[in-house]
Amino acid sequence: MISAHDSVTVSTAQRLAFALKNLKSSDSPYSIVANINGDPTTEIAFNWFTNEGVTDGRVEIVEGIVKTPEEFAKPLVSVKAKVIHVKDLNYCAKSNGLLELAGLQNNTKMDFESNKANVKGLKPEKLYSYRVGKEASWSDIGTFRTAGKNLSVSFIYTTDPQANNDGMFNISQTTTHAAQEMYPDVDFWLHCGDLIESSGPNNSEWEWEQFFMTQQDIFLKNSFAPVMGNHDKSPNHNFAYHFNTDSTAFDYELSANPGSVYSFVYGNALFFALSFEDYMIPGYLDAMSKWMHKEVEAYPEVKWKIAYYHKTIYTGSASHQDDNDGKIVRDVIAPLFDSLKIDLALQGHDHVYEVIGPVKNKKLVPGAVIGQTRVASDSRENLTGLKGGIFNVKEGTLYFLNNSSGRKKYEPRTKEQMKGDEARLGVNNYFSLFTGRFGQTGRPTFSNVSVSRDNIHIKTYEILDDMNPSLFDEFQIVK
Question: How many other C-beta atoms are found inside a 10 Å radius of the C-beta of residue 125?
């Protein structure tokens, strides 16, 4: 298997030359991912692609860390994959660049096989090794750890790499490899959408391949919990074919995107993975509300409730603050978060750094923020002149966006710019909601989120020009 970290270069030609020296069987699995699906103490789900006609694959699991194929001679678990034939995926788009080196025309259609395998009955808090494929065509060996009774949990949060060419994929993989190197032992990775750039009927399966290939070593070490962004939405359903998230809990008769809304409990937190992409379907947001209420009632013992999704409910982005769909969703979802007492909302879409709240009834909860550092304000990099702090979410929700892990960035709106749009947006004193750092440096970012019994601790890093991470902001959430 080609090491993603080694094989990513600034040139498709270089990558193809490297790949030719490391060719594997055309039956080999690729775009391999382990997803949280169900109870992470005893269950996990796998997804991978194979070329057209390559079926009869399975996942094999053994306990502990193993390094050789021979150690799978008597696997603890062997589950045959459900194979879905994926017909006529649009393989590449004009924006992808140098694909003509491989003799491909834009909008070339290709067929694939999507392989899904769900595993149950594992032991809590155990380390396992796995491989996917079949005889003579096995993947590299991956590892995962089931959740335990420990109430603490740590995860990596990224969003919006949104790459469509070699240079952009190199930026996003540099970000995620820096996160992996700094935090190799997190429990899972969480993603707030726009995994790729090209959307619609002529989107690019090549971009999905690159998303996985440039980070395959990371996916083989971490379970992944994504949500769908607007750029991930396509009538080709790439998101559903590439992930094996729960597609049974939510009523997907109201959505064309199964697996885009699901939940799970990890440690002392209930996580809601949400999609607002189908907000205009009659009854969709109401169904989401009823489902979330049911989930909260089912887990009264958890302390923290964390929602994550793509399109922002509150934002200061000049590109999207005045979007009409944002207002429609906010008018339904913000009161829902208030009623369910959602503690933390992790956002995507707006490619800017912003700490907002705690908010309730579209207003800032008074006296809920202490311990901040005041620094020089800046019209771009930090409009509030604030960093850090302790945010008490007992009476409201903290909304957080950590910018984006890729190259594409948006600009923050000033207080004066927000003021002129408040009446239409239905939010008074909008700028006052920005209680932490707020701005844009233009650098890619990632966050480590640690959830314990007492607090949620978030550290965000930006990737400097020398490709090294630097602490950008750090704050705590208490209740």
Answer: 11
Longest dimension (CA), the chain: 68
Whole-number average pLDDT of the chain = 92
Task: Label residues 327-346 b or e (16+ Cβ within 10 Å = b).
Answer: eebbebbbebbbebebbbbb
DSSP annotation of 295 reads: H
DSSP string of 234-292?
-TT-HHHHH-----SSS-GGG-S-TTSSEEEEETTEEEEE---TTTTSTTHHHHHHHHH
Q: State percent of the chain over pLDDT 70.
A: 94
Tens-digit pLDDT profile for residues 46-94: 999 999 999 999 999 999 999 999 999 999 999 999 999 999 999 988 7
Helices (H) and strands (E) in the chain, counts: 10, 27
Long-range contact set of residues 358-362: C-beta below 8 Å, sequence gap at least 24: 358/391, 358/392, 358/393, 358/395, 358/396, 358/397, 358/398, 358/435, 359/314, 359/334, 359/396, 359/397, 359/398, 359/399, 359/433, 360/395, 360/396, 360/397, 361/335, 362/334, 362/426, 362/427, 362/428
For residues 109 and 208, what is the distance between their CA atoms, to the nearest angstrom? 14
| Tokens (6 digits) for 390 | 């302790």
* Mean pLDDT to the nearest integer, 353-361: 98
Per-residue pLDDT tens over the stretch 287-321: 999 999 999 999 999 999 999 999 999 999 999 99
Which bin fits 53, alpha (ψ -120 to 50), beta or left (φ > 0)? left
Contact between 228 and 239 under an 8 Å Cβ cutoff? The reply is: yes
pTM of the model: 0.94
Residues 298, 281: Cα–Cα separation, whole Å: 27
203-242, pLDDT tens digit by residue? 999 999 999 999 999 999 999 999 999 999 999 999 999 9
452, burial (CB in 10 Å: exposed 0-12, middle 13-18, buried 19+): middle
297 CB-near residues (< 8 Å, 6+ apart): none
Q: What is the dihedral of CA 40, 263, 346, 175, to 10 degrees?
A: 40
Tokens encoding 307: 């929602």
- Supply 332's token pair: 């339904």
Please answer whether residues 250 and 291 qualify as being in contact, where contact means their C-beta atoms are separated by less than 8 angstroms. yes
Coil/strand/helix, residue 339: helix
Spatial CA neighbour of 39 closest among 270, 315, 385: 270
Kindly write down the DSSP assignment for every residue of 80-92, as one continuous string. Answer: EPEEEEEEEEE--
Other CB atoms within a 10 A radius of the CB of residue 419 amount to 14
- CA 448 to chain centroid, in Å, comes to 13
